[in-house]
Design a protein that fits this description.
Layout (H helix, E strand, L loop, with lengths): L1 E2 L4 E5 L2 H4 L12 H5 L18 H15 L3 E5 L2 H4 L9 H16 L3 E7 L5 H4 L9 H16 L5 E6 L1 H10 L10 H25 L4 E7 L3 E3 L4 H16 L2 H6 L4 H7 L7 H5 L5 E5 L4 E5 L6 E3 L17 H15 L3 E5 L17 H19 L4 E7 L18 E4 L4 E4 L1 H12 L13 E2 L1
Parallel strand pairs: 2-3, 2-12, 3-4, 4-5, 5-6, 6-8, 7-9, 8-11, 11-12
Antiparallel strand pairs: 1-15, 9-10, 13-14
Amino acid sequence: MTTRPRFVWGASTSAFQIEGAAHRDGRADSIWDVYLRAPGRVSHNDTADIACDHYHRYADDVTLMRDLGLDAYRFSIAWPRVLPQGRGAANEAGLAFYDRLIDALLAAGIEPWLCLYHWDLPQALGELGGWQNRDIAGWFADYTALVARRYGDRVKRFATFNEPGVFTLFGYGLGWHAPGVADKAALHQAIHHVNLSHGRAVDVLRRDVVGASIGAIHNRQPCYPCTSSPEDAAAALRLAAYWNDAFPFPQAFACYPPALRDAVTPYVRPDDMAQIGRPVDWFGLNHYSPHYVKADTNLIGASFGPPPQAVPRSAIGWPVVPDAFRETLVDIDQRFRIPIYVMENGTAAADVIDPAGDIQDDDRIRYLKAYITAMEQAIAAGADVRGYFVWSLMDNFEWGAGYSQRFGIVYVDHATQRRIPKASARWYAEMIAARRSPDDPAGPHNRAEE
C-alpha cells in the first residue's frame, strides 16, 4: 500500500496572454499577432504586444506566487519566441528567458508545469498551412525535442496542448479565433494533425526527459440542449463531439468517436491511431461552466445559446453550475482511469479598486468556494483528482475579449503594470495554508492506494 502524493495547488497562465515583449529579443509573429492586426476582431482592438509585461517582470510575478503559497505554476512556452520560424534555428535569447523563469520558480519552491502549446503558432508555419499541414507533426516533434532537452533537467511535468478542442473549432471551423478559417475540411485536418502531433510529442518527451510526467489539457463541459426540441438535442450532441471528445477520445482509445469518424478518416494513415494513442500519465481538465446549445446553420450545426433563466451567471454571462463540475470530474475518472489535474477553473468578475486601494471580489470568492467544494465532492465519490490550478494568476489578455475581462486573482493595471492581489488571492492563499496544517501536512485529499 502506498500513499498518494500531496494534492497540488497552483495557478495557470499562458505565454501569449501575459508575456508581452512581442517584438523583443528575436521573437517573431505568431498567428495571433497577425490576426489581431485586422480591426474589429478583438474588443477595443486590444493587442498582446505588452500584455502583462511578464517577460520583464517575471521575477516579481514569481514572488507573488511564492507569497500565495503555490505548490506549482502552469505556464506555456511561446513557440515563436524560441523558434521564430517554427523550425530551423533556435533563438537563444528566447530560450534563456525560460531558463530564468524556471530557475526562479524552483528557487521559490514552486514546481514548474510546462505546456508546449497554448495557441500561439508561429506565423511562419501558419503560412505553410498551420495545423492543416500534416508536416506540422514533425515540426512539433522537433520543437518538443528542443524544449525537452533544454529544460528537462529541471522540469518533469509536461502538457502537450492546451484546449485543442477550442483552438481547432474556433480557429479552423467557426473562424472566431486565429487564423480565422471557417472550413469543414480544414477543421477535420487540424483535429487529426493536432492529435498526431500530440502522439509524436509524447514519444519525444519519453525519450528525452528522465522521469517525465506527461498529459494534455482538455476543455470538457456538459453540453445541454437549450430547449426540448429534437434539433437542439442533436446540436448538443454534435457540439459535444467536437468540444469534449475529438481529442481525449482518440488519445485514450486510439480511435475517433463515432460522430467524427467519417469526417476525419480521409486524413488518417496507417499507424496514425497507434501513434496518437500513446499512454499518458494524467488528464488535464479546464472547466468553467456547462454549455447550453442550440441548432445553427454553421458548419457543425450547433452554437452556444442562453442558459435557463433560473441558472446563475457570472459577470460575463457564463452559467455558474458547480454540480456540472462535480459530474464532469466523476465522468472523466470513470471514462479515462488516470489521475486528473484541474488546470483551469475560475471566473471573470467586475473588479474595481475601492478607495482603500483594495479589490474586494466577493463574487469570485463565492465561485471558487463553490467549485472547489464540488471538486471535493467528486473526490469523495471516488474521482482521482490530484491538483487544482486557478485561472488565472493575474488579469491578462483574454483573446477576443482583449482586456475587458478580468479572470486574475491578482489585479493588473495595464497602464502602469502595477499588480494588486485581490481579496480572492488572500482567500486562496489562506485556503492553501489551511490544507497544510500541522495535523494534516499532506492536505485533506490523500487516500491510500493499493
